[in-house]
Write a structure and sequence with these properties.
This protein is mostly helical. It is built from 9 helices and no strands. Helix content is 80%, strand content 0%.
């Protein structure tokens, strides 16, 4: 009974770790603000379908990166440090571009295109929602999660439960933010929406810098151990 309780507690802690690591990088609040020009003007049914498709694509993309990302990197001879540094740079650049974007820029009329659902994966899911930074974080989690749960491989039930539940919670938050983006914009107003976007962009910039610093630090530690 004690072992079962400890096992459940460990899985819950790992699930929280997955959510805490991915949610700030995915940052669905900022992504929803960026995609407001897409959501505005959509029919409610199309808006719901688009939000649902993006959340679904994000789930499969993140779970695939977490569970099989390390294997893919090993096959191509790419180190996890390179993914962290490269992904962190992309996140930082994305945050900076959003932070320095002209607040008076006009919205595009892409939402009027009848093929908006065809663009649910690219570019709305990747790279606008789940970009290289999110993928690098998911791959890093996949590399360390089995050790955190004292599991022999990523196919361990504890690893699978923590991965699926944690990523599902992140994707549910994506759906909620995207589904109700227009309502949030009306509630906040133009100035409030811009404040949220700027703050989210600054946080995204800091997250990108932190990912780069972590990758460089881990790489230097690995060199010193050789």
């Amino acid at each position: 009974m004690i072992d079962l309780h400890n096992g459940a507690s460990t899985v819950i802690e790992a699930t929280i770790l997955v959510v805490a690591a991915l949610f700030p990088v995915v940052n669905p609040l900022a992504a929803a603000a960026v995609l407001l020009n897409v959501f505005s003007g959509l029919e409610p049914a199309v808006h719901r379908a688009l939000a649902r498709k993006i959340a679904t694509y994000c789930f499969f993309l993140l779970i695939g990166s977490l569970l099989w990302g390390v294997k893919i990197l090993t096959f191509f001879g790419i180190s996890i440090y390179a993914v962290q540094i490269g992904g962190g740079l992309v996140v930082a650049v994305t945050g900076w571009s959003l932070l320095s974007r002209d607040s008076t820029s006009t919205r595009s009329n892409s939402a009027q295109d009848s093929s908006v659902l065809d663009r649910a994966f690219y570019p709305y899911t990747m790279p606008l929602t789940v970009g290289p930074g999110s993928i690098s974080v998911a791959i890093t989690l996949g590399a360390h999660l089995p050790a955190e749960l004292h599991a022999s491989s990523f196919l361990s039930p504890r690893v699978l439960i923590a991965s699926f539940v944690g990523i599902a919670l992140v994707c549910i938050s994506i759906y909620i933010c995207y589904r109700y983006a227009n309502a949030a914009e009306r509630l906040l107003g133009a100035s409030g929406t811009m404040v949220v976007l700027r703050l989210s962009a600054f946080i995204l910039l800091c997250i990108g810098v932190q990912i780069v610093c972590t990758g460089v630090q881990d790489y230097l530690e690995a060199i010193h151990q050789i």
